[in-house]
Amino acid sequence: MIIGSLSRLPYSTFTAALSPIAGIGLMLTVVLIAVAYRSEFWTRQRLTAEPQRAYANWPIIIKSVAVLLAMVGGFFAGVAPALVAIVAGSIQLFTRRIKSEKIYAEIDWTLLLMFAGLFIVIAGLEKSMLSPGGVTAVERLRLDDIPVLSGITALLSNIVSNVPAVLVLKPFIAQLQNQQQAWLSVAMASTLAGNFAIVGSVANLIVVQRARAQNVEIGFWEYSRVGAPLTVLTIGVGVFWLTFA
Question: With 19 labelled, which of 37, 45, 46, 245 sits at a CA distance of 20 to 30 A?
Fold first, then answer.
């Protein structure tokens, strides 16, 4: 969403350029997980766990699907993604079937606080450390080259997380000749780089916390066992696709 608002790329252009990379990445994810955990996936043994009973609230489901389709339609129509998302979320809260307090109780306020803190730290970094000399040194790295920009984005995303990495790169991309290609490269690399380590993406932290609540511990090295090779392969695919497709 941040890249969409900064680059002003049409949603259709963004989707057409990056959806093939996402599809290939998803297939690679399935393959790598199946290979890494062969004893769990390559077996004829059936699962013995009892399925949990599920309650389907059909009015809420129908409303959610309708709002989702309208939201995606708004994206393709060119409406600002942040505006579409917040309107869709507000509409979802207008219901008499589920109390809003239950929804707010599900929000992880600690993660949101950490996320806000990242923006503050990156803003301070931009003001204090990006001196004219530092900017000149970065500009010599040939950021207009897709492999170079993707590599720097991936490295930075695993140091400060992917969203702050995008904010750090923003002033440099604004000076490039082909900004659309640059933003697509940053979008691809920053998203896929989040798979390298647990701390590479806030989404990873959410998944790990949710898993812990279900008594499933996912450690740093256990995650990197699949995440690290997956990141290298998918970014490689992304660079090749954006360069030659």
Answer: 37
